[in-house]
Amino acid sequence: MVDSRIEKLARLLVSYSVKVCPGDRVIINSGTMAEPLLKEIYVQVLQAGGHPLIMCSLPGTEELFYRYASDEQLRHVPKPLELIMETYDVCISIIAETNTRALSNVDAAKVAMQRKSRTELMRTFMRRAASGELRWTVAAYPTNALAQDAEMGLNEYEDFVYRACLPDLDDPVGYWQRFSARQQKIADWFKGKERVHIIGPETDLHLNIRDRIFSNCDGHFNMPDGEIFTGPVEDSVAGTVQFSFPAIYEGREVDGVRLRFEKGKVVQATAQKNEDLLLKTLDTDKGAHYVGEFAIGTNEGITRFTREILFDEKIGGTFHIALGAGYPETGSKNESAIHWDMICDLRNGGEIRVDDELFYRDGKFVIV
Question: pLDDT digits over 334-368, tens only?
């Protein structure tokens, strides 16, 4: 029997997150482990009148690609992928890893080369998403690999995932609509504000948000959700930040990351583990040295680090920045082939001041 929560999640993604309409061309991305959820999404898209296309990857093929691909093949961008990115109306991506460590020993320079080749794809995605031409969302399907990363059993992890996405099983859409209304008040508070100062353990960071827009992440782009974010003024980030949790990139952990910024640019980067990966990824392109996103996690139902950014960046009491591409709808002008989120915990002694006014302390909002 299919878990009834799978059907509820599929319906939530199709009817609320991306709101599939008759005639929409819908690409559904995932791996074979997510088959039960993919089938439910497929049915929901058909019932909504959309035209679904499933693009399903086989376990181990990405590892094989990096092992055998020549430089020319690493730089190649398949034409069907370009066509999908340029013309499809909806993209639903499901994370369903079978081995999150498959790329642990891949040369970071190869990954950077492949990422750089897809700069134009990223640019197209960002442009069409900002204009509303492309509606997209990302969710997760519980697998043993993801459960192991989170240090949970599979049944426990299933409960964690579905509880985060479906806090109200009887009315999931209503829950996220109510969540959205509450969170919009926080996003609105930032209108007209300029200076942000973040203080935390080994962290003293300044950035400017003048004329930038804060997005209310309420279950449309991610499921689960729970953050507000913007793109800081590109040359404004200054100071130092030490991230509390490992930064995960292509399944590899970069632990103990510490960055120093001057005039918006990373001028010093160190890590206790996999520092070479950090440095080579920063060298992907010019935009990789700048911040495309500043965000505050607001989901108080997610309290622990799981090594899956879909959940971890939402942890209530944290903030994160993303190196690389910013979202144009926030006003960000930063372009890059990468978008790498890194998380800092403010629940024990951290604070955020906005225009010198205390806004956030010990992981809690004190104004809104």
Answer: 999 999 999 999 999 999 999 999 999 999 999 87
Classify residue 211 by burial, with Cβ atoms within 10 Å: 0-12, 13-18, 19+: exposed
Rounded to two decimals, what is the model's pTM?
0.92
Is the pLDDT at 295 greater than 80, yes or no? Answer: yes
213 and 261 in a single domain? The answer is yes
150 and 216 share one domain: no
Residue at a domain's end among 114, 141, 166:
166
Give the separation between CA 209 and CA 237, rounded to whole angstroms.
Answer: 10
Its domain, for residue 324, covers 174-365
Closest residue by Cα to residue 320 from 190, 149, 198, 182: 198
Helix ranges restricted to H, the chain = 4-12, 35-47, 61-68, 71-75, 79-87, 108-117, 119-131, 144-149, 154-165, 172-189, 275-282, 309-312
Answer yes or no: do 204 and 96 share one domain: no
Do 240 and 272 contact (CB within 8 A), yes or no?
Answer: no
Same domain, 128 and 249: no
Q: Roughly how many angstroms between the first and final C-alpha of the chain, as a whole number? A: 45
Backbone phi, then psi, for 312, in 5-degree steps?
-65, -35
Closest CA to 212 of 227, 235, 192: 192
Of 209, 229, 204, 203, nearest in space to 217 by CA: 229
Q: State pLDDT tens for residues 313-322.
A: 999 999 999 9
Examine the domain organization and report whether 21 and 151 are in the same domain. Answer: yes
